[in-house]
Amino acid sequence: MRGTNSVPVWCVVRCRGARAGRAMHVAGLALNRFLELVKLFRSTYRVKKSMRETESQQVMGNRIDPVRLQEVAAAVYRSIGVPEQDAWLAADTLVQADLWGHQSHGLLRLGWYYARLQSGAMQALTQTTLEVDAGAVAVMDGHDGLGQVIARRAVDEAVTRAQKHGVGVVSVRNSNHFGTCMYYTRIGAQQGCVMVLMSNAGPNMAPWGGLKKKIGTNPWSIAVPGGSYGPVVMDMANSGVARGKIYLADKRRESIPSHWAVDALGRPTTDPKAALEGFILPMAGHKGYVMGTMVDILSGVLSGSQFLDKVHGPYDPVNRSGAGHFMVALNVAAFQPLNAFHARMDEYLTSLKDVPLAEGHDQVFYPGEMEKLADTDNRSKGLLLPIDTLSDVARVANEAGVGSLLPF
Ligand SMILES: NC(=O)c1ccc[n+]([C@@H]2O[C@H](COP(=O)([O-])OP(=O)(O)OC[C@H]3O[C@@H](n4cnc5c(N)ncnc54)[C@H](O)[C@@H]3O)[C@@H](O)[C@H]2O)c1
């Protein structure tokens, strides 16, 4: 019997057997290599996963009682001459921002404010004066005091005027960065007023189409009494995100979405450092730029304060800020009985939330609800802050001589 090409059968069998053996050997080697690669991949994945877990454990500290943190911040303020009541207020605005989940405006900023107080760019003793006191309208001069104290006094002025005239408008000049707008608008809403607050800020956005920092993130907030739901609060910057969120990403060693900012040459970036050197993008394209401009005009031009790139932000330790604010209080009772308004708001919010849910969502939030839920959660569990923020708070507290109060 002959095999193919007249090769003897024994030879074919042997040769085929040898080839098959070689093939099996090769296949075996390949399989081994493949298994080795799988092993390598698995162990690399495990190492990377554990690195990521360790990293995230290192990035965030342990949960801390917010009251203890407020004590530290208040002591830091007092150490540099801020009066007791103002120190508590300023400390409360920081911790409250953290409680709402806005860590970009929380204790992360204590060191910046402290540096401004140290340099004298911001005055520890806040002495506000009324430059205009005309019925529903007031113009308040903050004389470079603490933005938090000035804004808090402006709330009282606006609400008192609204209770008397139906509307109260307070324009504020020569103030400083005050943190979140909603800290102040919520206070007025809890007193039966619709509150509007806006502020200009140090420049970090370019005018639409330009490549020079001129416009701040210029936030604004509207808070409305919300019946049994509590205040309904819109509070946002006119940039896609607050600049502080980019600082926070940097502190957490995270990248940022490419639509948040462009680098110094106008190119999209995911690197928070490059973003901070570059420009923050306005929200909703040109619309955010337009809104930011109007906020600057109302806060800076109308009040007689600084505007555009003449405003200095809290990151600048030496220059006086010149920030201006614009606050309006509308007394709901001047429009309709407050109880009726509360009932209508209840109906409104219940209806707003009562919709089928889109994929990936387990509820609809009304404006300000996420912050309210975060506040309840953080107050019961304690605050979880990035380690960088905690070490910065520790550095400032030690420098201020109040390190013994640190709860971590
Ligand atoms: N003082 C300053 O100069 C300054 C400058 C910039 C920003 N800020 C502050 O920074 C804070 C953050 O600003 P931001 O623009 O990043 O706000 P944001 O985008 O986190 O929230 C904007 C609004 O959207 C609501 N919201 C968020 N997620 C929602 C969801 N899933 N469903 C329903 N509603 C939702 C929030 O309640 C809020 O009213 C604000 O408190 C602002 O005042 C201050």
Key descriptive features of the protein:
seven-stranded mixed β-sheet; alpha+beta; disordered N terminus; 408 residues; 12 helices; two-stranded antiparallel sheet; globular; 47% helix; Ribosomal Protein S8, Chain: A, domain 1; binds nicotinamide-adenine-dinucleotide
Quick structural gist:
This protein is of the alpha+beta class and 408 residues long. The protein contains 12 helices and 9 strands. The protein has helices at residues 9-59, 66-79, 84-99, 110-119, 147-165, 182-189, 243-251, 272-277, 286-301, 338-353, 369-381, 387-399; strands spanning 129-134, 137-141, 167-175, 193-199, 220-224, 232-236, 261-262, 279-280, 323-331.
| Secondary-structure element string | HHHHEEHEHEEEHEHEHEHHH
Please state the second-level CATH architecture of the domain at 126-344.
Answer: 2-Layer Sandwich
Largest sheet: 7 strands, mixed
Overall spatial form: globular
* Class from helix and strand fractions: alpha+beta
* Biggest sheet, spatial arrangement of strands: 1-2-3-9-4-5-6
Based on CA atoms alone, the radius of gyration comes out at 30 Å
Which percent bin holds the helix content?
Answer: 40-55%
